[in-house]
Amino acid sequence: MTMKKKISWRSFLPPICGGELPAKATKKVAAKQSSFTRISQLDLSNPNSLLSEDLSISLAGSNIHMFTLGEIKVMTQTFSTGSFIGEGGFGPVYKGFIDDKLRPGLKAQPVAVKLLDLDGTQGHREWLTEVIFLGQLRHPHLVKLIGYCCEDEHRVLVYEYMPRGSLENQLFRRFSVSLSWSTRMKIALGAAKGLAFLHGAEKPVIYRDFKASNILLDSDYNAKLSDFGLAKDGPDGDDTHVSTRVMGTEGYAAPEYVMTGHLTAMSDVYSFGVVLLELLTGRRSLDKTRPHREQNLVEYARPMLMDNRKLSRIMDMRLEGQYSETGARKAAALAYQCLSHRPKQRPTMNEVVKILEPLKDYQDMPIGTFVFEMPDSSPVSSNGHHRQNHGHRHSRSPNSPLTENGASNGNRRPTSSPLHPRSGGRRP
């Protein structure tokens, strides 16, 4: 859980991102590391401004690699269709592999490679924002940026590969095995720790686009936040908020942010409450296929969260009752707080972490009764007719694969501003 040295925006020169660095330049940067400060978001607006030094110089010592386009092509087999794994607002995502011979000291590993779509909804600014934040921040619940490519018009990001994809795919994909109660709470806790780290950094970071598709899962369902293209530095000094153009995803953005453009850490807390509600109910934050009054999950479900009887009706049916009732009540109460229309009444992410910590280990789950069903065929009676034994079958095991009611899967491509419709697609 570390944070890299902060860096000055003056060191960026996008038009000449590629190329080798002279030894003198590297030494010069090393000597200046102690005076670096994190870049200002205002400096991200002009990708063609002539600045003094190369991007890679500014990231010296961050363990972020600057790859050539040729190396990216080797990783992805020249962006082959067999390597394609999804697409989002940034552009297509490919699964690649770094051979141990590609770079000295860089271990062999699978990677996710995001290629900026020049005609897409995001651009150089978002690409640069992601490089800056993930180049400076390190935490077990933030996806690891391995490197980038900035060659001619090409903008590429290389991340650690997350084999279970996004929470959105795991939670809503058809024909998938339902996530267990403990796994859902583990994911919620990991994502909460990631947000708490960002909010508690030396210079706080507001994530601004917290949603199920931006939570990636490793093989053990450890959650990591990805896609920092919309992240913002928190307010300075005595400022209470950051004023900004409204960006994010419809259904997840806090109402006060949508109304005023005033962004605070509590905006992230609200978005976390939406995802926690999705984990409890198995429903999407916005679902136009449902009856009109149920299409907006927060409007429909929040009034029921503090009523135990009504809560049981909106819990995800795919859990088949195999969840801790005490834990569900506590998680529902937490979601209710996070979704308050009054930002000051929402808990901080540190408080959220403390509440979630024990929930995945609660053991007060109902145990079903197994009833054996006799075969349909029975011995023939003396009168020539079959006797039938009508047994009773117990409901499916909670571990058996089930289809989701009303869910849809698909790598949907989002649009971005001001509030892009829900994004889909698998992320790295």
UniProtKB/TrEMBL annotation:
UniProt KW keywords: Cell membrane, Kinase, Membrane, Transferase
Listed Polar residues bias regions: 398-418
GO molecular-function term, one example from the UniProt record: kinase activity
Location of the region described as Disordered in the Swiss-Prot/TrEMBL record: 373-428
Domain Protein kinase: 79-360
Major place of residence: membrane
Record localization: Cell membrane
Comp. bias (Basic residues): 384-396
InterPro entries: Kinase-like_dom_sf (IPR011009), Plant_Ser_Thr_Prot_Kinase (IPR050823), Prot_kinase_dom (IPR000719), Ser-Thr/Tyr_kinase_cat_dom (IPR001245), Ser/Thr_kinase_AS (IPR008271)
Superkingdom: Eukaryota
Protein name listed in UniProt: Serine/threonine-protein kinase RIPK
Recorded name of the encoding gene: LOC103492538
